[in-house]
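**Sequence, C-alpha cells**
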Amino acid sequence: MSRNLKLTLAYDGFNFHGWQIQPEKPTVQAVLGECIARVTGEKVLPQGSGRTDAGVHAVAQVASFETQSPIPAPNLKGALNDILPAAIRVTSVEEVPPEFHARKSAKAKTYRYRIYRGDVCPPFLARYVYHHPYPLDEAAMQQAAGVVIGEHDFTSFAAVDPEKGTNEDAASNVRTVFSSDWQRQAEELIYTARGNGFLHHMVRNLVGTFLLIGKGSLTAEGLKQILAARNRSRGGATAPASGLYLVSVEY
C-alpha cells in the first residue's frame, strides 16, 4: 500500500550545493534520497518545498515522497537520522493525504537573514551569518522594509537566467509579500520576510538593496522606483548565502 510522507528537515547548508540534485555535487535532496533508499530499499526523489541555494540553511524545510514501505513514521525518523550526515536532521515524519505535495501545496514561506554587526565575528558564527561591522542606518532600513509588502512584480530582485541573459517572463515574477521586517537582536540585525513564494535569490537581493539604504546611498522612495523598474540591474548586490535561512513553510 502506497503512503505519502511529509518530512520536516533542518540543515546546515554550508557544505551543500543547495537543495536540488546536481551531477557530481553534494546536495541535500541527493543525500536525503540516498538515505531513504538505504532505509526503505526504494529509489525515491523527495520533493522539497523549494530550492534553497548553495550555502543557504534551513530551520524547517519540508519534503514529501511516496513509499510502499510499512516502516512507522517515528521509526523512519530515527532510522534516517542514524545514517544522515550530522548537517542534516529530520525533525518530524508525518503520513499525509495522497494529494499533498511539499512544493505545490505550500501557501506561505518565511525566510530570515542574519547580519552580524559586531567588530569581530566569532568563528563559530562565521558560516551562519553575514558579517557587516560597518556603519548602517538601521532605523532607515526598518522604515523602508514595508515598501515591498503586498503583491508586486519582483523582477528587480530575481536572479537573471544565465542561459537567456534575462529574467523569466514578468508574470512568473509576481509574488505577494505578507510581512517584511528588520529587527536588532543583540549583535545581530535580522531581516524576516513572509510571502506566498520567493524568486531565485529574491531575499538575498532584497537584503543587498536594503543595505544600500543603510549606507545612505538609496532612499525608501528609490526602493519603490527599483521595484517599479522591473530590472535586476537597478537593485543592490546579492547578499552572501551564509546569512539566509528557510524558517518555515505553511500549508
User: Anything to note?
Assistant: The CA atoms of residues 158 and 199 lie 6 Å apart.
